[in-house]
Amino acid sequence: MIKLEVQNITLAYDRNIVIRDLTFQVTPGEMVGLIGPNGSGKSTIIKAMSRVIHPYSGKILLNGKNIAQIPREELARLLGVVPQMPLLPSAFTAFEIVLMGRNPHLRLFQYEGEKDLNITWQAMGQTATQPLAERRIGELSGGEIQRIVIARVLAQEPKSILLDEPTANLDISHQIEILDLIKNLCLENNLPVVIALHDLNLASQYCDRLILLNNGQVHSQGTPSEVINPQNIKEVYGAEGCVYAHPVNGLPTVLLKAGSRRPAKPA
Amino acid sequence: MTLNQLKPPVIEPAVPSYFPHWRRRVYAIIGLLIAAVVVMAFATTIGSVQVPFFTTWRILFSRLPFVDIAPTWQSTIETIILQIRLPRVILAGLVGAALATAGATYQGLFRNPLADPYLIGAAQGASLGAVIGFLLPLQWQVMGFGIIPVLAFTGALLSVAIVYILARVGKTVPVTTLILAGVALGALWGSIVSYLTITSGEKLHGIMFWLMGSFSLSAWPEVMVVLPYMVIGVVVILLYSRSLNVMQLDEEQAKQLGIDVEKVKLILLAAATLITAAAVSFVGIIGFVGIIIPHAVRLIWGPDHRFLLPLCVLTGAIFLVLADLIARTALAPTEIPIGVITAICGVPFFLYLLRRRKRAVFF
Amino acid sequence: MKNKMCLVSVFGLVSALILSLLASCQAPAEEVAPSPIEVTDQVGRVVRLEKVPEKIISLTPSNTEILFALGLGDKVVGVTQYCNYPPEAQDKPKIGGFSATEIDVSVEQIVAIAPDLILASETHQKEVIPKLEQLIPGAAVLVLKTQTESFDVVFEAINLVGKCTGTEDKATQLVTSMKKQIKAITDKTDKLSDSERPRVLYIVWHDPIFAIGGGTLGNTLIEAAGGVNIFKEQIGAPIVDLETIIARNPQVILGSAAVGAGADLPYQFALHEERLKVVNARINNRVYGVNDDLTGRPGPRIVEALELLAKLIHPELFK
Description:
Chain A is an alpha/beta fold. In chain A, 32% of the residues lie in helices and 24% in strands. Chain A has helices at 42-49, 72-78, 94-99, 114-126, 142-156, 172-188, 200-206, 224-227, 230-237; strands at residues 4-13, 16-26, 31-35, 57-62, 65-66, 79-82, 160-164, 193-196, 209-214, 217-222, 243-245, 252-254. In chain A, strand 11 (243-245) and strand 12 form a beta hairpin. Chain C has 12 helices and 13 strands. In chain C, strands 8, 9, 10, 11, 12 and 13 form a 6-stranded mixed sheet that branches. A 5-stranded parallel sheet of chain C has the order 5-4-3-6-7, sandwiched between helices. Chain C has a two-stranded antiparallel ribbon with strand order 1-2. Classes of the chains: A alpha/beta, B mainly alpha, C alpha/beta. At the A-B interface, helix 2, strand 6, helix 3, helix 4 and helix 6 of A face helix 10 and helix 11 of B.
């Protein structure tokens, strides 16, 4: 059971500040969604939280401990990341890639054993990628690759998960399948999950809390109903009159209509 | 929404049939190990001087402990077999193994199919050291060797070290910067070598032959010196094979999976460069082995470094022993520089690889 | 009237002509050859000189030695950096190096010197000679063979140089004396049977091992000195491997040992290489250092070379 905390971080690439003074927390069993327009910094936050880039200022804490001080191996056991556009070597098979997820649990010179193989196979089962096991990455589609990376994170058995646009290349059935899986893991194993999504409807359906980003700052934070409302959508995305209630569960749903975009107000 | 509605169906876990996959490769390693020993023994029986087949075997066996065979051969034949051919064959095996393994390691580290052990300047540094050794009017002996191997070894290591330091950006050493710095510095050393070679006068022949690579004067002292470097370097590389697998993902993902990327890079670079330097300092620059063998092994047995690396060790050894066999017997008693033989084998292989681009076989 | 004046003027002109011809015929110098000189050099080129050359350049060490042996040292105005014999040659201006390419022969310098005669070798034909002929049309280029195995070619070369420089007498003298000294040795060695000829190995480099093979001056010297070259079937200076040397078991090993630091590495190798200790020459301590300058230059010193080799190979015949 671990808790993720982001305290007053400012993220920048060279001189360009992408995120300014961001603070939020994620508790175990909670799925938090990062939403916002393109370039609002969602991926950057994920990268900072997975220690790929360092915050210009501020701290990121995992159970109270600064992630910069946690040795990488240990961090990999605690935190699993599904990156946005993962580059995979095309000559390896899907199984071998998913098996790499076991790396944090193996000592430096130790090789995978039967337990690791089983866990890998199970992870592939959960992501419906078992039929792809012997296929080479170079032959697979973007969606299949995405599911394999998610399987890898499952094989990693982390205590928290970060996902950067995990459903971008997937068709509808796979989108639901994967997000159902993630949500299930989140609830059953009490994992904190942070997921960056650009699809507002998926965010609304699956996330317990949403953080809407705009221009490097938090525009609004709260439950989907609180965050996805006509005024926020208009202010951030410049689209008017798009928010409706889902006919089955009443959660906010964005339906597009041609010609509904007004130029966004300058911040 | 209840929990049950969310739960996707879980497929019953069944142990995947991966073990035979691995077992095949382990058998391949054992098979090649035996093949390597056999090939080296046979290579000892063939040479520019005709020695009866069984005489060679008797001489070889007579050196084993607890075996007592009365010598029925002349001492000159024994010298040929035990002091000239055997160390030469073993050195060829060691050098082939070193270059192939270093090549596979470099290809894995740089994630580039064109990488070879000389990518970041080891060969050019060694050449520069050797040429300086040729031109210095000194007669020093270091451990019984002239200054040329020592300077070549130092040149190779120094060159790569300089490239590594130059390529550092903060705490990281980005792979593309390494390549650029290596190519640039290699070109610099190469041009100095060219200049020194042209103005070397009567030493020209000696230098050209060193640069082309040759096993012609291999003897036991060389084998004894190269062996420890080889063993240490190869063992270190083999230990990191699984990490090298994970590093085939981009560096971001490797870090997220717990690999200390910069440390692994440094250790593997150092080990691969060490064995390359040891190989070329006595033998000269032998090309193509470091690039063909890893690709050939990958084509047959796949990119998993846990098998790729040991298979490269063995395949590289067998390849170079056979190449050297051709080099010293095709035009006996004249020797063809071994670089020529490996190039003759290498070029058609490259063309073949180019035509096979349809399947993603590299990375 | 007109006819008479014509006759007188014609007669006057003709006598003037005859007188001037007679006057010019009286060339007083002792060694001046009848000009112009025309010879065919050793690669079949026809070489013409209008008069005896005063400024001579040599592009090979052997040609330099020939020039000095014919007493033409004063006229030599350019040599290569490897022309080290006789010692006076080392003081001459250097116009070239080792190889026969443009990099190593300073054509500019040669043009600046403006020689009358240039002694070249057949290796210069491709690049250097065409350039020289183009830039210094007034100079004659005499090509003498440096890659030769025959003593006769050397004699011919000396004679040719004599002819071109007006020193024919000296040349003939030199050749006669050389032939005599050589004969003194070959008279004894020609009579030797095959079994009386020791197997000889001559190495000029050690890594890789370059041996003197057949078709070379070195080979001819070895044979004339009463030995048999173990690599005489290989033409030129082949690379050989240690195995074959051990198998052929030479009884005498000659290793290059020119003057200068590190220049005797082949000799040192032959003397100290562990694996050669099983070879006859090492067992009987018959490994000798030999100056390549003597055995490799087709010039007047082949006599010295032959005498040296004869003493080394057949000490019992030549003291």
